[in-house]
Amino acid sequence: QVRLQESGPGLVKPSQTLSLTCTVSGGSITASYFYWTWIRQSPEKGLEWIGYMEYSGRVYYSPSLKSRTSISRDTSKNQFSLQLTSVTPEDTAMYFCARGLSDLGGLRYDYWGQGTQVTVSS
To answer: Quick one: pLDDT at residue 72?
Structure first.
C-alpha cells in the first residue's frame, strides 16, 4: 500500500517562500513509471495542477506557476518537495501530493496525500 504524507508550515507570509515535503512509503519515488505530483485546491480556483517530478528526476511545471515553482527530491528519504516563491494570498489553498501514472495520453492519480492547508497572510 502506497502512502503519501504532506508536511510543512501552515502559515506563510506574503512575499516569502512556501516549502512543502511529501514523504512516500510503500513505493519508491524512482520506480518507473510514476509521476510525483503537486496539486492544490481552493474555493476560488478549484483544483490546480502545480507540477511533477517524474521517476527519472525530470520536472514539469504549470506554465502559470513555472517562474515561481521548484520541485526537488531526496531519494535517500523517499521524499519530494515543493517550493513556491513570492507567495501572495492567492496562493492560499489546500496542497496535495499525489502519484500519477500515464493513462491515455494524460495522467491519472492513484494515490493521494491527505492534503495540508497553507494560508498566506501577514
So the answer is: 97
